Amino acid sequence: MTKEFRIKLNLANSCIQLSLAAVLVVLASLTFPSDCFHHDDHHPEITAALFVFGDSLIDPGNNNYINTSTPFQANFPPYGESFFKYPSGRFCDGRVIPDFIAEYAKLPFIPPYLQIGYQYQLAYGSNFASAGAGALVETFPGFVINLKQQLWYFNEAEKQLRSNLGKTGAERILSNSVYFFSIGGNDYTTDSRTSGIYKSFTPEDYVAMVVGNITAAVEEIYKKGGRKFGVLNLPPLGCIPVYRAADLAAGGTGECNGEITALVKLHNVLLSKKLEHLQKQLKGFRYSYFDIFAVVDEIFDNPSKYGFKEVKSGCCGSGPFRGADSCGGKRGIKEYELCDNPQDYFSFDSGHPTQAANQLFAKLIWAGPANITGPYNLKSLFQISFVT
User: Fold this and answer.
1) Helix (H, G, I), strand (E, B) or coil at 314
2) Which CATH superfamily is domain 3-26+40-383 in?
3) Active-site residue set
4) CA distances from 229 to 111, 161, 201, 221, 314 (A)
5) Is the peptide bond before 369 cis (omega within 30 degrees of 0)?
6) Strands (E), the chain
7) Radius of gyration for the alpha carbons in the chain, expressed in angstroms and rounded
8) Are 13 and 306 in contact (CB under 8 A)?
9) Fewest CB atoms within 10 Å of the CB: 3, 46, 224, 263?
10) Is there a contact between 299 and 16 (Cβ–Cβ < 8 Å)?
11) 213, 136 contact by CB (below 8 A)
């Protein structure tokens, strides 16, 4: 990790202790690429909606409404207790990243699409994410809402918007909305890598399929009128508690899973290149690429600087590193441990961040410097308006 990155990220982290307004003042003093802000494009009277696609990192509870099994659900205590005081279905002690983004954008909570169905106007957006989902339909089939199905739901929502608002109103919402993606990690898990499809390809070709499905989804939304996209790369998934525990069980010392880390790095490089290509190819295409891998890597190197006391073990679970998927006692293992202060931990359970970590991510996604979130941050994307 470069010294420049650490300096800028540490500066951004110090802002997290301030109000959001103060964060923006400090970040305004940093050097951004000249094309990061298009002030002449801004029309603040138009409100942008937020549409979300992804997996458990950003699922607000869609899996509460599908026929699945408990490993893919978080609708039982102690999930949700730090904020909602009840299990909302989020794989977290509280809020996930889109909850904070909606707050910063002055939008209401964006609910699970399956909760609201067709009864909601959708003018503020919707969240289609599903815990366990992958970019490939072969990832946990029958248990999750994969990316292809999420896009089908979005198409249904688009039809409903046109019915509710008319052609002009719907097109204004669609062109000014931000489409937020965080998906792909489940395609590289141990379960996915033991499947037949993974074994049929080289790692490079497999990664190309995953990334290709993500960028194909972006292009499909672009054809529907979407112009503004927020995309997360993948964090160092090989270092989450479940894989540290697996390494220990295999006779290691609790280190990160090297095979997963290598795939994640391939994924991130290719995803970045593909988004750069889309920006050159598609007229009006704007995007924000959040380097969550680098941010998490920096947090793991310097946890105390970011308010964390523990980054290797989960807050909730059992066994070494609390890496067993037992949080809540509903997934085959009834006994589990729960820490006293989730905000001190980076991971809440065996594989998901705490609310404290999600808030840190969200603030950097919203207003982080260009070496972390670029070429636009999400705040600047929300400010850009396309008049139809």
Assistant:
1) strand
2) SGNH hydrolase (3.40.50.1110)
3) 56, 349, 352
4) 19, 19, 29, 10, 31
5) no
6) 50-54, 125-127, 178-182, 228-232, 286-290, 310-314, 316-317, 337-338, 345-347, 373-375
7) 20
8) yes
9) 3
10) no
11) yes
With a CB cutoff of 8 Å and minimum separation 6, the contacts of 374 are 33, 36, 288, 289
pLDDT tens per residue, range 13-46: 433 333 333 333 333 333 333 333 233 344 344 4
Pick from 168, 188, 334: nearest CA to 270: 188
Question: 79-107, pLDDT tens digit by residue?
Answer: 999 999 999 999 999 999 999 999 999 99
Would you give the end-to-end CA distance of the chain in angstroms?
44
Phi–psi pair at 325, nearest 5 degrees: -80, 65
Task: Report the 3 state secondary structure along 46-62.
Answer: CCCCEEEEECCCCCCCH
CB neighbour list of residue 71: distance below 8 Å, 6 or more residues apart: 132, 325, 331
Length in residues, the chain: 388
CA quadruple 75, 81, 83, 86: dihedral, nearest 10: 40
**Within 10 Å of residue 118's Cβ, how many Cβ atoms?**
12
